[in-house]
Amino acid sequence: MTSDSSEYLSLTGEANEYVFENGRRYHGYKPGRYMLPNDENEMDREDMKHHISMLITKGRLHLAPIGADPEVILDIGTGTGIWAIDTADLYPNAKVIATDLSPIQPQWVPPNLTFEIDDAEEDWLFEPQSIDLVHARYLFHGIRDWPRLLQQAKRVLKPGGYVELVEMHVIPSSPDNTLPPNSQIMELYTTLAEVSQEVGLDLSVAQKYGSMMVSAGFENVVEEVFDLPIGDWMQDRRMKEVGAFQRYQMVEGLHGIAFGALTRVAGWTPTRVQVFLAGVRREMRDRGVHCMYKLHFVYGRVPESVK
């Protein structure tokens, strides 16, 4: 057996080990790199977020205009793999590669899809100028150096290829000022933002993607921002459905969203976290509180040639 094979077996063995804390399962490969769990409850929530994205975009898996016949697509931090699976079905002639720290993806997938265990913050081993689209979604809990990630994406993308980043801007707002002055939802954001900053994470990075892409040398940078309500209070029928799903995934997901950061980094006791989250859940369930986040889709193109 070659040393490369030995390293691969060691890696896959480590990736299949897990860390258990406060009743939740976390990734074992490079533990702590990603702050959220990877158990069944979190996987269900990730799939629901995919459904929300599809509702918001009216069924579009990506907004970057990559054409009808891309050859290679890379999905960074694929999670459950649901985006990669749907994308492989949409482009059956393309090779789709999806990477993540955790091997939690299904085994039965389209034949043109490959899942790989990888850390997006390490050096990418893909061939330069070999990929048509690099896609990354909902990774503000895991990426600490976005400019480096964009440079790596630019290196592996073909001339004319696209990078697309999708993220929630989770600073809450209220169009009719029904969010209380001492809002528990706002306190959730400010608390997690301060804690995350201590470990190099930026929870408000979504609004910075556009300028980051321009600084990285991408051209034709486009940013599309969608309302993401918490609750079914908007008038539009589709947005009512979006809001209902968003409220459910947030209320059900608060434990996974907050526990790792608040117990590991901030040093809170589990009891303190539970009491804090109970107040946030009450506010999210309050139909009199009209609160929303924003969902940012930002994409940019690698220049065809150096000017």
TrEMBL record:
This is S-adenosyl-L-methionine-dependent methyltransferase. GO terms for molecular function: methyltransferase activity. SUPFAM superfamilies: S-adenosyl-L-methionine-dependent methyltransferases. Pfam families: Methyltransf_23.
